[in-house]
Amino acid sequence: MTAYWYRRMLWTMKSVVVIGAGFGGISAAAHLAKAGFQVTVVEKNAWVGGRARLLEREGFRFDMGPSWYWMPDQHDRWFEEFGFDRSSLYQARRVDPSYKVFFGDSEPGEQQNVVTVPADFEEACRIFATYEKDGDVKLRRFVERARRKYDFAIDHFVYRNYRSIFDMVNSTMIKNIPQLNLLRSYRGMINSSFSHPYLRKILEFPVVFLGSFARKTPAVYTLMNYIDFGLGTWYPEGGFTSVVQAMQHVAEKTGVEFRFSTPVTGFEFKGGKVSAVKVESEHGQEEIKADIVVANADYHHVDQELLPPEYRSFTPQFWEKRTLAPAVLNYYIGVRRKLPELAHHTFFFDTDWDEHFDTVYGNQRWPREPLFYLHIPSATDPSCAPEGQEAVFALVPVAAGLQEDPKTRDHYFDIILDRIEKRAGVSLREDIVFTQTMSHADFAADYNSYKGNAFGLGQTLFQTAYFRPANRSHKVSNLYYSGQYTVPGTGTTMSMISGKVAADRVIEDMNT
After folding, report:
1. Is residue 372 within a helix (H) or strand (E), and if so which, with residue range?
2. Runs of H (alpha helix) within 113-215
3. Gap between the Cα atoms of 103 and 348, Å rounded
4. Using CA of residue 481, residue 444, residue 22, residue 291, what is the dihedral sign?
5. Residue 466: how many CB atoms within 10 A of its CB?
6. Sign of CA dihedral 139, 142, 146, 148
7. Residues 49-72: what's their mean pLDDT?
8. 3: which residues sit within 8 A by CB, 6+ positions away?
9. pLDDT exceeds cutoff 70 at 8
10. 18: which strand partners?
11. Average pLDDT, the chain
12. Percent of the chain's residues with pLDDT above 90
């Protein structure tokens, strides 16, 4: 018997408990089960997917969380690792136009204040050329540089564990510093290439997905512009529920057991290691034996609330000093008519950009005139709403940790409706079938989210790679982490990859 198969035989006797059935948890579970471990996923909620949650009401269907299906190549790669063709499990179609952006009032003689970004890259280049001299040439050059960063990141950066600073600062990384622009800011990189404010904002908006502000985000993350313009924006038919259900199917085929409505309440320890995971099940308090634990739940919640003080990796002060990604104020709106004036993805960047993000990352407070985003899946998938109607999801990014109440939600809903009418000429008030909201308190209650944040830990320079909270506990050697707080970063695709990276670390540690 070879050493490999001997280890595999031993692993079949090892039990792994994964906490949380979000993207990272399902991914970690599937990879560990594939390696031969006995894996159980425990999830506090009744559904798979964590924030990738479905709202169905009065014939309307909404993704309550993620709404951008980016990096389709990495989604396909995940399924291929288990021998599945993604398209046999769910279909994804290219969204066209990719998105529409409403800016502020135009001055006399200026171009219109609405930019529709098409899926076709050459057409997008032509649009850029109408806003500034050689805009098409500049965009091609910029996106090509972004592509090289993306390819480098996938090959050397994203699927990597960081045990020490030398895993980050190595000869390959040092050699490529000029190409990666590690010491420049995202905004600085864009502003040195483009002069028109509309084009700058279009190129800068993806930084919101990183949970950071462009002035504080390393320019290496302009790779997001290749994801946007090169790989494109897609829509998984049936919404993100289709994606997580497909991932669950794959995980179950590899032998993973899922237990829903089973919140974790703590741990048992033996010899400085977790020996069992305490859960609240339909039968009452229960302990599930665990040789290894992978926590895909909110990192702060596990570290500060589930672990006793002597086993915590970080102090409360550490967490207080982290730059959190934004929280969100979400509205799910059933509208009894079609809205051809709006696109599947529509942005309202018609107020002061820097002022809004200062309220998120600087002097944290509720914004006076917020930027906001609309997701209208029924524009692409008519089954998301009754015939002739629209499902509209409105999102305002706001600072984590703010206090809010029903009056706050009503106030911002009025602002959103007024601005849609002012900029797009669409009056919605008389056609609203229902409205449902979600914000800080809901994220904290439903996902144990620290300060009600929506996207985990922001990706500033000193919260990138090795500088993010490690995916293995500093105090408990058999406790690992996946999800949006650890490597590689925020967002559904990065969370999915984080599960593989965490599983790889478990396997590496078992082999040493």
Report:
1. strand 372-375
2. 121-131, 135-153, 171-175, 177-180, 186-191, 197-204
3. 6
4. positive
5. 17
6. positive
7. 98
8. none
9. no
10. 41, 294
11. 95
12. 90
DSSP letter (8 states) at residue 428: -
Helix or strand holding residue 41 (H, E): strand 38-42
Is the pLDDT score of 169 beyond 70?
A: yes
Q: How far is the C-alpha of 38 from the C-alpha of 473, rounded, in Å?
A: 21
Q: What is the full DSSP assignment across 204-248?
A: HGGGGGGTS-TTTSBGGGGHHHHIIIII--EEETT-HHHHHHHHH
Quick one: tokens of 293? Answer: 């634990």
Q: Which residues contact 145 (CB under 8 A, 6 or more apart)?
A: 179, 222
Strand partners, 333: 392, 435
CA atoms of 213 and 465, how far apart (whole Å): 17
CA distance 487 to 504: 12
- What are the structural domains of the chain? 3-52+69-91+239-314+469-510 (3.50.50.60), 121-232 (1.10.405), 323-447 (3.30.519)
What does the pLDDT look like over 439-487, one tens digit per residue? 999 999 999 999 999 999 999 989 999 999 999 999 999 999 999 999 9
List the one residue out of 24, 88, 166, 173 whose CA is nearest residue 484. Answer: 24
Listed residue (268, 297, 263, 267) closest to 280, CA to CA: 263
**Nearest in space to 378 (alpha carbons), one of 128, 67, 113:** 67
Overall pTM > 0.85: yes
Q: Over 60: is that where the pLDDT of 1 sits? A: no
Q: Which two tokens stand for residue 391?
A: 């499902």
